[in-house]
Amino acid sequence: MDRKSVLIIEDEMIHGMLLKSSIENSGYHVLDVISRGEDAVNAAIDHRPDLIISDILLKGEITGVDAIEQILNHVSIPFIFLTALNDTGIMNQANDTFPSAIINKPYDMKMLIETINSLLKNN
Known about the structure:
This protein is 44% helix and 20% strand. The protein starts with a strand and ends with a helix. Helix 4 links the parallel strand 4 (79-83) and strand 5 (101-104). It has helices at 13-25, 37-47, 64-72, 88-95, 109-121, and strands at 5-9, 29-34, 51-55, 79-83, 101-104.
């Protein structure tokens, strides 16, 4: 059986690498850790991961929400937003994309992995 794949969109590389390590230790394949929304759109369309985990604020011209909206115009992939934001406007925009989950930073890694397990078992 093929391992399920995850694409991580995170502009803080330390967080991205810790997340990658935890996800891989849970038995999943991490395609990449990408810091720019524009690059994430191309990677998601080209590689079609089973799940995307995205920060909301990213380096580059577009936010994680914008990147997810563009990805969803091409492929249907479940996704989780990670955020430290409390901005009502961007949180409303994030909710309008119908994420599988929005998890606030700092997050409990065990809870995040349980969420990933639940999503990928049902997908």
